[in-house]
Amino acid sequence: MTEIARLLGTVWRLVFQDYRLIAAICIFVPERGRFLFMRYDAFSKCHPLTNFLFFLGAIGFCVVIQHPMYLAAGAVGAGGYYLLLKGRDGWKRIAGLVPVFVVIAGLNPLLNTYGERLLFTVFGRPYTLEALYYGMAVAGMFVVMILWFGCYSMVLTSDKFVCLFGSLIPALSLLLVMVLRMIPSLARKGNQIADARTCIGKGVTGANSAKEKIAGGMQVLSALTDWALEGSIITADAMRCRGYGTAKRTSFRIYRMTARDWVLIGTMAVLAAGVLLAGGTGATFTPELWIAPPTWGLAAYGAFLLIPTLLYLQEAVQWHISISGI
Amino acid sequence: MAHFHIRDLTFSYPGAKRPTLSGVNLTIEKGEYVVLCGKSGSGKTSLLRHLKSVLTPYGSRSGQVLFDGMPLQQVSQYDQSRKIGFVMQNPDEQLVTDKVWHELAFGLENLGVDQKTIRLRVAEMASYFGLQDWFDREVATLSGGQKQLLNLASIMAMQPQVLILDEPTSQLDPIAASDFLNTVRKINIELGTTIIITEHRLEDIYHSADRVVVMEEGRVIASDGPRQVGCLLWQQDSAMFAALPTPTRVFYQSGAEGKCPLTVREGRSWLTKTFENRSLTALEPEMEPEAPKKRENALRIQETWFRYEKQGRDILRGLNLEVPRGCIFAIVGGNGAGKSTTLKTICGICKPYRGKVELFGKPIKSYGASLYRGCVAMLPQDPRSLFVGKTLREDLREMCREEGPIQAVAKTCEITHLLDAYPYDISGGEQQRAALAKVLLTNPKLLLLDEPTKGLDSFFKGKFAEILKKLKAQGITIILVSHDVEFCAEYADLVGMFFDGQIVTTDTPHRFFGQNSFYTTAANRMSRCVFQNAVTAGDVAVLYRKNLEEIR
Predict the structure, then answer these.
(1) Do residue A234 and residue A294 come from a single domain?
(2) Domain boundary at A218, A241, A264, which?
(3) What is the domain count for chain A?
(4) Which of A251, A261, B102, B493 gets the most CB atoms within 10 Å of its CB?
């Protein structure tokens, strides 16, 4: 029993306490935001670099700082911005995160038995208050990060990403753009093939055994491959037709840095420096609970996180004033 | 100086028995609008591909292609991509990037143009082609017509002097197609860009062509103004005559003489002038007997409602439809009206949330998996979605292990000579028939066809119609969905108009199209001023001759 618990504890630490892993997972989460409803937003209209630096700061601080008050500020900032972007639908997602928070927070003491104040024992192992607090901090961080990445995928769309990193690696950025273009087209063709095969009695759902289902799936895949290869010949022709490879490629960027972007980046830099210089972000949970007293760095942190929300409000107010002016 | 000068061009693909192009001589002047036509496989595409080095196919060749007086091979790739624009058939596969604005900029990026110029050119193109509203969209969300317009715009952004279009509208519906062709015409007139275009739907472009070039078996058999070419094709009894616009065909088929009409307007004035102040004896073509009220139904749909998403709009809104056994039933109607969804409902892919669907008197749900074994089968819009094998024979074997039925079906669909070919190597019309063969191997009693004439030239259409007649004679009920009113008028037994999620009206072709004034065939539109209910070119020609004999 204890062996299993120890093993689970290792996995637990790997998954939830190694931030790098979470960050890596979140970055590779496909951009679901692209096809979903997103409300009008002022921050999204800024230059991709501004967007990117903001998320770098917000997510970076969130990963590094475990101080509960900073986490609370993060939750308010991320939750608020998420709701601004998604509107009423956002509540569903946030409500869905509550059980995630509870489960992670509640599970941590089962696997992490450090701590002084004993609440009760489970399977002969101590369940401590410190470990519970630690679990809450980890869970909070996890939830806030999910929210930030949710905003990230809606604001920093693929074309913005390509615009940012396109000039670093031009060939790779074109490849990325082409892949992004292929995915929906392949999905559509795949569906077409599956439907067409259903109509001649070769559908995967109509098959009897698991073996037939796999065989049917393979047939769809092979048909899709043939089709995609034929298509790629045409795409290659179309590219060469439009002079691909005849000169040194430039990469056209539709976004422009404006004065406002520079002001925003400057503000973010000052606030971030404030957070770092003010200190008071430390907190340890096990074996002994210790939380640093908050400093003015917390205010700087809060202001940093509220930038998109404030931008939204500012534009809303301005709009309102200009309308009443008419 | 001529733009393109083709001298004695002969070309054959490696291993081919006869040359694809033989002794082609052609001169194309600056600013000309040239329509190139010919049956599938007559060498049109090969000829066009010789006008741009990167697309020129491999094979043995003699002769010369001069561009602005210089051999084409000596013109640098950079200049060629700038000056010669090429639009291909497939709207989807020509797109390279994921965003509309990026697609517009792609060619200019390749040429190494600077930011400022690209910004200006992209803005210019978006305004000229009316793309502003979908400038920020993902290309995946565009319709076929929009995609093809984007392809055209992104090539025009490079400001080419010549625009070559290889069957650009074959995958589009008629409205999108005529939009596209009008834009091409506008480019020719307003910018003076030379246009070389191949098309099989000549109706929209024939009259505006400066010159029509007809190809047959790799040779240029005619190169002249549209009226002269029409006359020539009639005199030579060429297979290409069937592809000419309806007014022209009616004119020659009725044995009239003089200046032949090219558009509906000209056809109308020709008919009006001929029969001015004369009493007509025959007003109507022979009508089909009225459809009997009580018949055995192959399909009955009652009060059916369907939508794709919970929050989405209803695609089928109380649809009622009855299709009698053993007939060819055509459903016509606008784009996105729900015609294809109707077919999907009949074959059980879309499950309606209200209403009844009955096949041969039994509810569709009671069939289970046996639905697709000998009851219903559908030929999808894109035949390529059915091919899984390396040869057609392999594909047909997937459906049926015995050789007998395969041979029989191959014979019906006239693909016996293609059985060992790779499905992607054969032409669109042949692919269509091969896919049909595969579908027929399920022995359906009810056959559903989704846009079966899309991308087919007049010759393949005729062939396809013959096959449908054969199937009908075997007792198979056929329901087809189509934009092609000419095809439906000619070959369907019953036509239903689909609008707003319902079948609005159903009647025999003559009664159906005779009553409509917009949604009807060109023959009907040109002849309704003198005759009634004449819907096919044949109808008008027969009536014309009858009346003229009476008058004489």
Answers:
(1) no
(2) A241
(3) 2
(4) B102
Mutate which: A88, A195, A199, A220, vs B, most B CBs within 10 A: A199
Distance from CA of B438 to the nearest CA of A (A): 8
Residues B22 and B135 in one domain: yes
Tokens representing residue B439 in the block: 């579908």
Please give the Cα distance from B231 to B226 (Å, whole number).
9
Q: Which of B179, B213, B244 lies at the terminal end of a domain, its last residue? A: B244
A233 and A306, same domain (yes or no): no
Candidate from B102, B114, B155 with C-beta closest to A242: B155
pLDDT band at B2 (very low <50, low <70, confident <90, very high): confident
Pick from B302, B346, B519: which is nearest to B449 by CA? Answer: B346
For residue B269, give its domain range.
253-287+536-551
Q: Residues of A numbered 193-222 whose beta carbons fall under 8 angstroms of chain B's beta carbons: which are they? A: 193, 195-203, 206, 219, 222
- pLDDT (average), residues B31-56: 91
- Nearest chain A alpha carbon to B87: A238
| Helix-helix angle B115-128:B100-110, to 10 degrees | 130
In a domain, A248, yes or no: no
Interface residue A185 vs chain B (CB under 8 A): yes
Q: Do A242 and B81 touch (CB under 8 A)?
A: yes
A240 to chain B, any CB pair closer than 8 A? The answer is yes
Q: And the tokens for B231?
A: 């006359």
B-interface mutation test, from A157, A182, A227, A241, most B Cβ less than 10 A away? A241
Residues of chain B found within 8 Å of residue A193, distances taken between Cβ atoms: 385-386
pLDDT of residue B190: 94
- Are A250 and B378 an interchain contact pair (Cβ–Cβ within 8 Å)? no
Contacts of A171 in chain B (CB under 8 A): none
pLDDT one-digit tens code per residue, B78-136: 999 999 999 998 898 999 988 899 999 999 999 999 989 999 999 999 999 999 888 88
Q: What is the pLDDT of residue A325?
A: 66
Contact: A246, B76; criterion CB under 8 Å? yes
Angstrom distance (rounded) from CA B445 to CA B405 = 16
**Angle A111-A117-A121 (CA atoms, 0-180°, nearest 5)?**
50
CATH code of B339's domain: 3.40.50.300
Confidence band of A72 (pLDDT split at 50, 70, 90): very high
Residues B301 and B359 in one domain: yes
Range of the domain at A201: 168-241
Which residues are CB-contacts of A208 (< 8 A; sequence separation ≥ 6)? Answer: none
The pLDDT value recorded for residue B439 is 92
Query: For residue A184, what pLDDT is reported?
Result: 84
**B381, B400: one domain:** yes
Under 8 Å CB-to-CB from B155, ≥6 apart: which residues? A241, A242, B85, B86, B87, B107, B163
The interface pTM score, or ipTM, of the predicted complex is 0.87
Residue B370 has pLDDT above 50, yes or no: yes
Tell whether B546 and B496 lie within a shared domain. no
Residue with tokens 């069939």: B367
- Do B127 and B194 fall within a single domain? yes
B381 and B425 both lie in a single domain: yes
> Measured between CB atoms, does A246 come within 8 Å of chain B?
yes
Give the strand order in the sheet containing B194-198: B84-87, B162-166, B194-198, B33-38, B211-216, B219-224
**Residues of chain B with C-beta less than 8 angstroms from the C-beta of A222:** 388
Residue B539 CA to residue B520 CA, distance in Å, equals 14
Tens digit of each residue's pLDDT (9 = 90 or more) over A277-321 = 988 888 888 777 888 888 888 999 999 999 998 998 888 888 888
In this structure, are A59 and A145 located in the same domain?
Answer: yes
